[in-house]
């Protein structure tokens, strides 16, 4: 996925302050509207050779799982789907789902309005600027936090909750941060988050069946959830072979549901090599994250699989995904890893 979702990059030590009266260099600003017209890219975005895009990656064989029967309550279909889910989790934790019940119109609208937001001038997007230590808001690369191996991307993240008192949490986020002109975006992404929450619970049912704990076990556990929705936008790059949209990382969440556009670029590290997952507009990519994997498939897999987003061609690559994470108070009795959201 997801995905850049919680990526930790090595931090370069801060430069000592000079007393020689030299003027400090202006802070680097990632403004795609300006950088797109330059013949090269700033050195801070250049990645080491061993981490640069793998142009010879093979496709990862991931199962295409039909959820139609399972979501409609058919027992045999659910058992068949759960078997495929279990096999994928034991191999690498990635699978595709189709007939997922999400309206294709909603998916298209989510991509369309993502485009509209990221094409705004930087000053307008900065109205939703994500502050240090927060996991919601707009971020243009990580120029304010790191000094090297910066990702060539912009993100917009916002929270979602199933709590009845937060029934319009996404819609309110857009209007409070960006104004009434963005109310329609809030309505679309509110509906999208609700659809993702419903889909994630359906997937949790299959995980419960595959692990032999019953269909309702994980569904009930995750029924009341707090999640993060993130829009990833990869602007055109003059030197795509030098940089990455998202660096190698694992997802320290319970579940990531990701939707790729037709550009693609998602790669997964399996069996000591990178593989790509081909885009399929009718399918969602599902990745089992660390907080779920470590408590369930731990005897077979020690860590969730690395993934990264990279450039193949010089056009924007849009990736849309949702992170499912259980509230802290419910995870605590099961044990909890140290998590840090960016």
Sketch the major β-sheet: 8 strands, mixed
Overall pLDDT, averaged? 78
Per DSSP E runs of 2 or more residues, the count of β-strands stands at 13
**Low-confidence runs of at least 5 consecutive residues:** 1-21, 294-304, 311-320, 323-342
Count of helix runs: 10
Order of helices and strands: HEEHHEHHEEHHHEEEEEEHEEH
Question: Strands, helices and their partners?
Answer:
Blueprint: H1 32-35, E1 58-59, E2 64-66, H2 68-71, H3 75-91, E3 94-98, H4 104-118, H5 122-125, E4 137-140, E5 154-161, H6 169-178, H7 183-210, H8 216-222, E6 226-234, E7 246-249, E8 255-260, E9 266-270, E10 273-276, E11 284-288, H9 290-296, E12 306-309, E13 317-325, H10 328-331
Parallel strand pairs: 1-10, 2-3
Antiparallel strand pairs: 3-11, 4-5, 5-6, 6-13, 7-12, 8-11, 8-13, 9-10, 9-12
Helix pairs in contact: 3-7, 4-7, 6-7, 7-8
Summed up, what is this model?
The protein is α+β, with helices and mostly antiparallel strands and about 350 residues long.
What report would you give on this structure?
The structure is a single chain. The chain has 342 residues and is an alpha+beta fold. Helix content is 29%, strand content 20%. It is built from ten helices and 13 strands. It has an eight-stranded mixed beta sheet. A five-stranded mixed beta sheet has the order 1-10-9-12-7, with no helix packed on it. A hairpin with a 2-residue loop joins β9 (266-270) and β10 (273-276). α4 crosses α7 (183-210) and α7 packs antiparallel against α8. It is globular and about 60 Å long. Residues 1-21, 294-304, 311-320 and 323-342 have low confidence and may be disordered.
